[in-house]
Amino acid sequence: IAERANLAGVRHILLVLSGKGGVGKSTLSTELALALRHAGKRVGILDVDLCGPSIPRMLRVQDSAVHQCDSGWVPVLAGQDKAIALMSIGFLLERPDDAVVWRGPKKNALIKQFVTDVAWGELDFLIVDTPPGTSDEHISTVEALRPYQLLGAVLVTTPQ
């Protein structure tokens, strides 16, 4: 089964969550990926923040295109050494700043497709940057990742 194969080489999956927007989830996801890469780990980022996909811009690959291979989408390689695998809806929009206005079922289908149809290869860590809040996207992401080795979650908070 293809969907099993695409995440079969991923050793650990880590969710980055928060109850509200603007607390630094994408920044933390990016910095965590860079730090793990610096420590010699093979790292990928799955950006499921469908309404605000900022990681492509943070890693300066916002103008990249996603290509297909036999086992699905090939992630964009990002970072100074082009060694961080990245998948984001930002790569699928005509213009990176376009707004995504979708109802739940379409968002949930894309999240499932991101989990099952991206050819991640061998990774030590897959960091999943989620949208703010506690929406359907979170439930869809956790449901889609349920069969895999979920390491845990980082909950980003602020003092207020």
Automatic annotation (TrEMBL):
Highest taxon in the source lineage: Eukaryota
Single GO biological process annotation from the record: iron-sulfur cluster assembly
An MF annotation (GO) of this entry: 4 iron, 4 sulfur cluster binding
GO cellular component: cytosol
InterPro entries in the record: Mrp-like_CS (IPR000808), Mrp/NBP35_ATP-bd (IPR019591), P-loop_NTPase (IPR027417), YlxH/NBP35 (IPR033756)
Pfam name, any one: ParA
Record key words, sorted: 4Fe-4S, ATP-binding, Iron, Iron-sulfur, Metal-binding, Nucleotide-binding
Protein name: NUBP2 factor
Organism: Ploceus nigricollis
UniProt gene name: Nubp2
